[in-house]
Every structure is written in structure tokens, then in C-alpha cells.
Design goal:
Blueprint (H helix, E strand, L loop, with lengths): L2 E6 L8 E7 L2 E2 L5 E3 L1 E9 L2 E10 L4 E6 L5 E8 L11 E8 L5 E3 L8 E6 L5 E6 L4 E9 L4 E12 L3 E4 L6 E4 L8 E3 L1
Antiparallel strand pairs: 1-2, 2-5, 3-4, 5-6, 7-8, 8-9, 9-10, 11-12, 12-13, 13-14, 15-16, 16-17
Length: about 190
């Protein structure tokens, strides 16, 4: 199977480069999943790559890979053109958080009907905003703790809002959560 996407982690002084790689699921002629997708992390040093860990993802034909600012965790927003559950015409999505060490992984899309609209790390802290669910969607803040190897929801910014876009300022002090495209175009700042 071919690599569909990859992303380098932010550089850490004195540490080898970190790389995340996404491999798509395998499907039969009827587009049924016969082998899961995979997210793997590698340590790249002096021209060679050593695999640190890998996590299977139930499905995924493409993925957006986002490293935390400290390079200790990875968000893999996996998407497919076909929703095997039949709930959505637009395909399915899965959001996984995987620690670089491989000691921790969390499926953030376990809830029924929890399509991921958008997700984005703060550029300065190990926290991210998640817009999840069918519209109107829930907007929440999550915190990654690398020392404790845990991820937890810290706040719900909006319980029900028509939102699908997240943009942080470069200092991580202000975030814009908005609804664009086929949504009403409302904008909130936090």
C-alpha cells in the first residue's frame, strides 16, 4: 500500500527529526474495507528512519496529519469518500490522537454521528479546538498532557453552532471559529 500523506513534527533541539506517515485502507471491488488504514511515526536520523509506533485506523482514504507544537502528539483526521455506515452522503471521518512514543492513542470520533468538521492545534500550547458532529456542531477545547500521557476535554465553547473552520493567531492567544462554505458565515472569537 502506498503512503497517502506525511508530516514532519516541529524541530526539537538536540532530538532527531520526527515524521508521521499515513497509509490508506485497502478496499475490494465493492469499496468495502478489507485492511485498515495506518498512522505510523518515525525517528529520522542521518538518512535512515526508525519506526517508533503505528496505530490502525478503522478506515481512511486520505488524512490530514497535525503535530502538537511540542512534537509529542499527532492528530490524524482520516477521511473516506464512502461512509460505510450510510449516515452521510459526504463520506466518513475519524479523528485519532496518537502519542509519539506510541504509549497512548485516543479515538476522538467514537460517539455516534460524530463527524469531524474541523480540528486545529494551538500554535503555542498542547491544546486543540475540535468542531464535531452534524450541523449544528459542538465546539470544544482539548488538552494534551505529554507527561501524564492523557488527553481530556477542558471546555465546550459552543454546544450547537454552525461552524466548520478554525484559525488561530500565531501567538495562540486568539482563535476564530467560523462557518464558511455552505454555512451561514458566522464568526466567533475566543
Amino acid at each position: 500500500r502506498d503512503v497517502q500523506s506525511f508530516q514532519f513534527a516541529p524541530a526539537i533541539d538536540g532530538e532527531p527529526a520526527r515524521l508521521a506517515v499515513f497509509t490508506a485502507d485497502a478496499r475490494d471491488a465493492l469499496q468495502r474495507v478489507v485492511a485498515p488504514a495506518e498512522v505510523a511515526t518515525f525517528e529520522v536520523c542521518e538518512g535512515s528512519a526508525i519506526q517508533r509506533n503505528s496505530a490502525s485506523v478503522q478506515f481512511g482514504q486520505q488524512a490530514d496529519l497535525q503535530w502538537s507544537p511540542t512534537g509529542t502528539a499527532l492528530l490524524a483526521h482520516c477521511q473516506t469518500d464512502i461512509d460505510d455506515s450510510g449516515q452521510s452522503y459526504y463520506g466518513g471521518s475519524k479523528l485519532m490522537l496518537v502519542s509519539y512514543s506510541g504509549d497512548y492513542s485516543l479515538d476522538l470520533s467514537q460517539e455516534k454521528g460524530s463527524v469531524v468538521q474541523a480540528v486545529a492545534w494551538s500554535p503555542t500550547n498542547d491544546e486543540f479546538i475540535l468542531v464535531q458532529g452534524f450541523q449544528p456542531a459542538k465546539v470544544s477545547v482539548w488538552k494534551w498532557d505529554a507527561k501524564e500521557m492523557s488527553c481530556s476535554q477542558t471546555a465546550v465553547l459552543q454546544e450547537k453552532a454552525h461552524r466548520n473552520t478554525i484559525r488561530w493567531n500565531q501567538l495562540g492567544s486568539v482563535v476564530c471559529v467560523a462557518g464558511f462554505g455552505n454555512l451561514a458565515g458566522e464568526v466567533d472569537f475566543f
